[in-house]
Design a protein that fits this description.
By secondary structure, the chain is α+β, with helices and mostly antiparallel strands. Helices cover about 40% and strands about 30% of the residues. It has a four-stranded mixed β-sheet with strand order 1-2-3-4, with helices on one face. Strand 3 and strand 4 form a beta hairpin. The longest helix has 25 residues.
């Protein structure tokens, strides 16, 4: 699975990029047919000013989850949790067919 990370309005340090790769890479074990994953890290003008948007490209419909938090790491973990649940749900539906 290919993971593309884009940072908007700032330069992400290597520690953050490694964290994103580690956490997002784990979703592959929940669903086999993931083509690629696009991660966008951005700063917004809100009290929780770190925004993370993850798009998982799979055959059929893509899964897009967006979360904001005071730290990028927290937003990434929230997004990955939601994506994992959606992938498990989608896999269960495929088995029932």
């Amino acid at each position: 699975m290919e993971i593309k990370v884009q940072s908007v309005k700032f330069d992400a340090d290597q520690k953050l990029l490694d964290f994103v790769d580690k956490k997002v890479g784990k979703i592959e074990k929940f669903y086999d047919n993931i083509v690629r994953t696009d991660v966008t890290l951005s700063l917004i003008s809100d009290h929780a000013n770190k925004n993370v948007k993850i798009r998982v490209c799979i055959p059929g419909n893509d899964i897009i989850v967006e979360r904001s938090a005071s730290r990028f790491e927290d937003a990434v973990v929230d997004c990955v949790d939601v994506i994992n649940k959606q992938l498990v749900s989608r896999k269960e539906k495929q088995r029932q067919k």
